[in-house]
Amino acid sequence: MNGRISKLESEIKEIAGDMEETQLLMTIPGVSYFSALTIIAEIATVERFPTSGHLCSYAGLIPSTSQSGSKETHGHIQGGRPLL
């Protein structure tokens, strides 16, 4: 079983290395081929988001903001739609 897993991991890594999108994502510190492929699978096509803000909101990367009258507070990043 371990041999089959290693073989599949190698094949996935090779496929990821051949994709321009994964190569670009892997230039981000901490993003491996597996993370890059997960991001690509979750987003599908970036063109479906009208702006980068929409993409960030979809990924749950926008900090929360509360406002009451003239007082505005900024909080933690809200949990958006979880990535796979």
Can you count the helices?
A: 4
Q: What is the residue-averaged pLDDT? A: 83
Strand numbers in spatial order across the main sheet = 1-2
Helix fraction?
40-55%
Radius of gyration, taken over Cα atoms and rounded to an integer in Å = 18 Å
Q: Give the class from helix and strand content and strand pairing.
A: alpha+beta
**Looking at the structure, what is the overall shape?**
elongated
Largest sheet: 2 strands, antiparallel
What proportion strand?
15-25%
| Total count of domains | 1
Write the H/E string, N to C. HHHHEE
Oligomeric state of shown chains: single chain
Number of strands: 2
Low-pLDDT runs of 5+ residues are none
End-to-end gap: 24 Å
TL;DR of this structure?
The protein has 84 residues and is an alpha+beta fold. The protein is built from four helices and two strands; from the N terminus they run H-H-H-H-E-E.
Describe this protein with a few key phrases.
84 residues, alpha+beta, two-stranded antiparallel sheet, elongated, Transpos_IS110, DNA binding, Transposase IS116/IS110/IS902 C-terminal domain-containing protein
Describe the structure.
The chain is of the alpha+beta class. The protein has one domain (2-77). The protein is built from four helices and two strands, in the order ααααββ. The chain has helices spanning 2-18, 20-25, 33-43, 52-58, and strands at 63-68, 71-77. The chain has a two-stranded antiparallel ribbon. Strand 1 and strand 2 form a beta hairpin. Helix 1 (2-18) packs across helix 3 (33-43). The protein is elongated and about 60 Å long. The two termini are 24 Å apart. The mean pLDDT is 83. This is Transposase IS116/IS110/IS902 C-terminal domain-containing protein. One of its GO terms (molecular function) is DNA binding.
